[in-house]
């Protein structure tokens, strides 16, 4: 099956396996321990890392914009090199360092963060609907992205505030949490 496929195809397929998420999970666990224990100890390297958040986010954007990168390098960057960069980004944002931290404090980002789980849950349905719409009306292609974004945010808003939160509140009342 893979005889005529480039090696990158196999490597790219491996990146979607949950086993490949273990390093990211491990890095998140280490980061949470560092943030938790950092409050009791003032270490110089914590400040150095947190001050590099804007540079780290810029590096993520630059790497994402590299054209024609082959599959092997995508795999190495995604599961190796970028993990350290994301580590710095998250740590700096947690410590409220840099311009990006100030931007992420805007109310629109708080709102998107609050509905982000619903966006994650509903994205497949919205994307499927948009693909069917593109197939049936390709001449209206310019509107698909706008409707996808507006539809996803609207459905996520309704789901979060009229379905998920009321159900969660009912569970809390019944379980007396």
Q: In angstroms, what is the radius of gyration?
A: 21 Å
Mean pLDDT: 75
What structural class results from the helix and strand content? mainly alpha
Largest sheet descriptor = none
Number of helical regions:
9
| Shape descriptor | globular
The percentage of residues in β strands lies in under 5%
Show unreliable segments: 5-12
Tally of strands: 0
SSE order: HHHHHHHHH
Helix fraction bin:
over 70%
| Terminal-residue CA separation | 53 Å
Can you walk through the features of this model?
Helix content is 79%, strand content 0%. With 177 residues, it is mainly α. The relative contact order is 0.08.
SSE order and pairing:
Layout: H1 7-14, H2 22-38, H3 44-50, H4 53-64, H5 71-94, H6 98-104, H7 107-114, H8 116-136, H9 141-175
Helix pairs in contact: 1-5, 2-5, 4-5, 8-9
In short:
The chain has 177 residues and is mainly α. It has nine helices and no strands.
Notable traits:
single chain, 177 residues, mainly alpha, 9 helices, 79% helix
């Amino acid at each position: 099956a893979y005889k005529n496929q480039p090696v990158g195809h196999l490597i790219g397929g491996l990146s979607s396996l949950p086993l490949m998420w273990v390093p990211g999970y491990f890095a998140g666990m280490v980061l949470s321990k560092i943030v938790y224990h950092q409050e009791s100890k003032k270490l110089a390297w914590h400040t150095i890392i947190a001050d590099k958040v804007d540079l780290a986010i810029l590096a993520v954007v630059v790497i994402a914009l590299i054209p024609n990168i082959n599959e092997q390098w995508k795999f190495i960057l995604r599961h190796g090199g970028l993990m350290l960069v994301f580590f710095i980004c998250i740590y700096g944002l947690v410590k409220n360092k840099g311009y990006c931290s100030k931007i992420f404090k805007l109310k629109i980002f708080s709102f998107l963060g609050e509905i982000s789980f619903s966006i994650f849950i509903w994205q497949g349905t919205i994307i499927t609907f948009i693909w069917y719409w593109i197939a049936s009306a390709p001449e209206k292609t310019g509107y698909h992205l706008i409707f996808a974004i507006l539809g996803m945010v609207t459905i996520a808003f309704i789901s979060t505030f009229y379905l998920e939160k009321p159900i969660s509140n009912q569970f809390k009342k019944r379980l007396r949490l």
